Sequence to fold (101 residues):
Amino acid sequence: MMIDYCRIKPEVNRMVKRIPDPLIFPFSVFMRNNGYTISAVKDGIIYRKGKAVAKILGAVETSEQSYAMNEHCSMRFKTFTELYLKIGYLFIEELNRQGLK
Fold:
């Protein structure tokens, strides 16, 4: 079952500044699905779409509980979180499945 999560408009009031480690992979698939290119760099992950640049800061090879994000990435993560809260774990499962293809 394919979820058209780009059309859902839920609301989350609080901006999150850090992304939990287990959500980086599905979040990256979410960003790719929304037209961002993904690059791994020495100090984190960069997502680019036109002039917009989102960044997760930290050496992802050394696992931490969570990683800092720049403002644009926090805004995108807010949308991701809203969809997760609205749809439930099926949202994460679908993104993981897409990413493993």
